[in-house]
Amino acid sequence: MTVKTAILISGRGSNMTALLDAAAQPGFPAEIVAVISNRPDAKGLEKAAEAGIPTAVVDHKAYPDKVHFELALEDALAASGAELVCLAGFMRLLSAEFVNRRLGRIVNIHPSLLPSFKGLEPQKQALDAGVRVSGCTVHFVTPGMDEGPSLLQAVVPVQPGDDAAALSARILAAEHKAYPAALRILADGGVRFEDGRAVFADPGAETALFP
Ligand code: GRF
Questions:
Q1: Looking at the domain that runs over 1-92, which CATH code has it been given?
Q2: Domain residue spans in the chain?
Q3: CA 155, CA 176: separation in Å to the nearest integer?
Q4: Residues with Cβ within 6 A of ligand 1?
C-alpha cells in the first residue's frame, strides 16, 4: 500500500524532482499522484509532466481572494485523491483553516535550521547572522509561516567565503536527500503529528534519519 501524495510547487521544482525520483523506486511507501502549481510558468510543471505525473495549475491570480483560491486548491487535491501534501517551494501562505484540515498530513521543507531564519532568503539571513552551520528542515505545517514541529533536519557547514548562492547550493543538495527521507518515514507511519509534536514510532528512527 502506498500513500497518495500531492506536491505543491511555485517554481523550479528540484525538491519535487527528488521526491518523484524517490517515489519511482520500488517499495517507496508514497505515490505521487499530482503536482499542483499556483504559477502557470513554474518550471517544475514541465519536469513533472515529463515524468508522467498529472499536473494542475491553480493560479492564485485567477481568484478574487485566498478563500476562493484555496477552494480551488481543495478541488484539485480532492480530484487527485491525495492523502498527504508536500509543499516544495510553494510560495503562498496557506490559511489556518486549510492547514488545520490537514494537520499531520501536510509537510514543508525550508532551507534553514528552523526556528532560525524563517521566511524569505534564509540562506542570506544565516550568512548575515554569522552562523557556522545551517541546513534544512522538513516540518509538519501548522498555521504560521515556517512553523510546526520538525520531522527531520540536516546540518550543512557554512564555509569561509560563502555567498548566498554557494550556501544555497550546499543546502539544496541536503534538501534533496532530506525530503525523500522524511516522506518515506511519514508515509510508512513512522512519525505522526500529536499535540503539536512530531512523535516517532521507533525512538531510534529520529537519529537514524540523518541523511
Ligand atoms: C527550496 O530551497 C525549499 O527549501 C524552499 O524553496 C526552495 C524551492 O526550490 N522552500 P525547488 O523549487 O524545490 O528547486
A1: 3.40.50.170
A2: 1-92, 108-211
A3: 13
A4: 9, 11-16, 88-89, 109-111, 172, 175
